[in-house]
Amino acid sequence: MGMELSPRLAHIKPSSTLKIASLAKQLKAEGKKVVDFSVGEPDFDTPDPVKKAAIEALQKGFTKYTPPAGIPDLKTAIIDKLKRENNLTYTPKQIIVTSGAKQAIFSALFAILGETDEVLISAPYWVSYPEMVSLAGAKPVIMTTAEQEGFKLTPQLLQKSITKNTKALILNYPSNPAGVMYTKQELESLSEVLKKHSLYVISDEIYEKIVFDGRSFTSFGSLKDMHEKTITINGVSKSFSMTGFRIGYIAAPEKVASACETIQSQTTSCATSFCQKAAVAAFTLNDEWFAFVRKTFELRRERIYNGLSRIKKISVHKPEGAFYVFCNIGKTGMNGNQFCERLLQEECVAAVPGDGFGYADYMRLSFATSDEQIDEGIVRIERFINREHRKPRA
Questions:
Q1: How far is CA 328 from CA 31, 367, 378, in A?
Q2: Residue 1 has what pLDDT?
Q3: If DSSP codes are grouped into helix, strand and coil, which group holds residue 299?
């Protein structure tokens, strides 16, 4: 018995998105022309001022440990950003810089959860939320939403799901995988339910800049009476095309932030020093950069949505933000795993099966890729479905 692995890992699945991305890279290495819709990262380069700041920090020898919670000038930049753009007021003690937003969520969950606690997660959900809750020793409680209702969490479903053991709700908008956005009024309706209960809201706002059709983004913590209940998670990966820099942050009530700092001091020690300097430069970029990001993804959304909508046997949910489309492929007679596995083998198109997001008959496609790749991918998906449809049945 002494050589067994931790029982916490018994029900933990590896990230399906990273698994498919790895298989796609393997096929590319073999010389195959893969259309990769798997990976959730912008395909354009990190802005030059950001790269220059990282290089300058390296050249100046800024390569040592930093304070566990982050360097003061990055904390200041984050505080200024949250005040200016999100109507959120924080002190330096309430900000923790982390090695990516993923680590920020992980630390926040470890800081607040006990073994009898439950965490509410709206499905379809990002693949890592339930696994992180389980790793923290708590119980993920999935709230299944309907596509005909825009995959949105309703106040009624939220109220029905809260029990005496509920410790937190994880909200993500615009969401991965379905690109779901909430209006300020919809968020206020959810907050009315939450006001009656003592629980945290972990608001994952990593895609806040990638919203379409002129929609505006509202931070959950800026709503009336929600500031002290909300743990805001964000980072530089998606908005600034800095996925490999691994810089995220937590903005939270001071006792939560303090606990996260303790966890970080005993795990990663601190986020990478020169990447923190690069993040400071990112927060100085003007709105021109974000306008470019939004416009690029909005045009790609139209391209992939219109292309996929013409294919029989799949239906596509039109995203309101982020850079993913969530497609129902149930009418093909295959579930998401079967469909995506064969699509990769037979057409060299990498897509992520929906079961990792809580919906077995779906797949997720990232449109963070070129117009040419989008067009070619649509051609291959249609060819695959048509060929499958024409096969004689036994």
A1: 30, 16, 15
A2: 55
A3: helix
